[in-house]
Amino acid sequence: MRTTLLTFIGTSFVLSMVAGCVPQQKYDDLLTAYRGKEQNSMKLQEELSASTANEALLRKQLTDARAYLDKLETMTTQQSSELADMESEFRSLSQRITSLQIAALPPALNAKLTQLRDAYPGVLNFDETTGMLEFNTDMSFGLGSATLSSDAQKAMNSLASILNSTNGAGFDLDIIGHTDNVPVNRPSTKKLFPDNMHLSVGRAMAVRSQLVKDTVAAERIKVGGWGEHRPVVVNPARGGEPANRRVEIFLIPRAPGAMAVKPSETPTTQAGGGNNTDQLDFPPK
Fold this sequence. Notes:
The chain is an alpha+beta fold. It folds into two domains: about 1-15 and about 20-100; about 105-255 and about 275-280, CATH 3.30.1330.60. About 50% of the residues lie in helices and about 10% in strands. The protein contains seven helices and five strands; from the N terminus they run H-H-H-E-E-H-H-E-H-H-E-E. The radius of gyration is 41 Å and the shape is rod-shaped.
């Protein structure tokens, strides 16, 4: 702008000096041309200012894009680490399963458990590879309930006979309950099962209680629960996945020389005077 002003002053001086020497029309034409050039110069200056502002905006957008890219790279690194952890856990679980498969179930016991599975389709499943029995809780229990259905009780009675037979007597039992990811919400259910972990253990306890009632020795049975934390398939966004609602029974060969201590008595009530878990009934979760 300073250069423009000096140019204008110089031009005005020259024009004033020659004003008397040139025709008025020529003077006016020169002045008009000069003003046109000055307007073009101002327009170019405005465009330059706008371009400078656009450049600053583009630089900011570029900086933001680089920051976002860095964030994505960090997230990718974290996810890669989580994936590596999951793969490590999967290998560990596979090794554990393999170790359980070393002592395969006797063929006669496998045959009896397969027949039991076929007799109660939908209620009971049996995996010959892992020696695992699985009760479908939707068929074995009511919603939010730890009370066994009549079909499940019949299946338990037949299972107890197999476990007490010559082929099954050398095995202890790990009974593990599982749920889907739908929270326990009904107040009447939450009184005894505050969350899915308690519900999964309660259902495993119901299976244990029925087997003990059917004369399987209590000292052979271990009970636990994973709640919603060990799904076999991904739960949907709403409603929970039925396949994840289950009670698993693992037949574990008793170690040679292991001694089981029989309990002095079997409790008939829960602490506080409540009923046995296998007698509890609740409305939906």
